Amino acid sequence: MLATPVDAVPEGTDLIHEPKWDGWRCIAFHEDDRVYLQSRAGRNLTTYFPDITRAVRTLPPGVVLDGELIVWERGRTNFALLQRRVTAGRGLLRMVNDHPAHYVLFDLLAAADGRPVLDLPLSDRRAQLERLLGGAPAQLTLTPQTTDMGQVSDWLTEWTVATGIEGVVTKRLGSRYQPGRRSGWWKFRRHLTTEAIVAGVTGSLHSLETLLLGRFDRWGRLRYTGRTHPLHTDQRQELGLLVSPLRPLQHRRATVVHPWPQPLPASWSGQLDRPEALRYVQVEPTTVVEIEADMAFEHQRWRHRVRYARARPDMSVYDVPLLLGEVEGYFDEP
């Protein structure tokens, strides 16, 4: 079951709210002595999470669970450690030992006897899930729920910073579980408005498609930090007047080159489903733009694409927040 994106957290007496965890959505099937973990896209994740399969195996056969796979590091969720499970190879067991995963559960699709419970109200499914997890291994965690909007506010202000959650999921207490449907569930992602430097574009200088963004680190190096969603027509026209092609400069007989490789390495984007390198147009890193980004910021980059808000010709590139660290650089306001 899917959630509909919204611009504000819904309110109502028949609604319940949960944290939106920053991990991999996963359905777990326990059939006899076999456990199968399936991603939202239908991918088999079983091999990569032996610690979770062992934990699920302690539950009665027949259960089908819905939740989020996460890995904690120093009190925050770390999405990159989830991705490394897929590429760890022979180092997988060491990674499992050093960075164990947790399965944060929020729904029950089939009960202990294998009986489907999808048509039951969410409140009934939740009650069964709570009973099922009584005495379960610590790696199987029941997600918090609340009807208190004050608690929701705390999640969005305190938890997003402290633990790395992305936002809030709101559900109708009487909703049925409808696979593949967006009915009765909503998701709100917390966003931050901040600034970045344009150092590349896709498309062409005459027809911009997306912006490649960067920030200076404390040593004065311009680091790649992310990419925008596709630009609208009026945004392309506005930025087309501001960005300019890279001008090679002479410095001690050497040409000062753009600080990023061409094409942009696939590993920089962090997208496992699109592994190809990205060709782009390098531009003079002199244009500052205001963007809206969600909370998924790791290894000095925004994992998801950001939204372009407006150009900031009133700002120097040296007014843009520095990359002081994964958390500090992200929340440091100019």
Automatic annotation (TrEMBL):
GO terms for molecular function: ATP binding; DNA ligase (ATP) activity. Pfam families: DNA_ligase_A_M. InterPro entries: Adenylation_LigC-like, ATP-dep_DNA_ligase, DNA_ligase_ATP-dep_cent, NA-bd_OB-fold. One of its GO terms (biological process) is DNA repair. Coiled coil: none annotated. Residues 103-227 form the ATP-dependent DNA ligase family profile domain. It catalyses: ATP + (deoxyribonucleotide)n-3'-hydroxyl + 5'-phospho-(deoxyribonucleotide)m = (deoxyribonucleotide)n+m + AMP + diphosphate. Keywords: Ligase. CDD domains: Adenylation_DNA_ligase_LigC (cd07905). Belongs to the ATP-dependent DNA ligase family. This is ATP dependent DNA ligase domain-containing protein. It comes from Micromonospora peucetia.
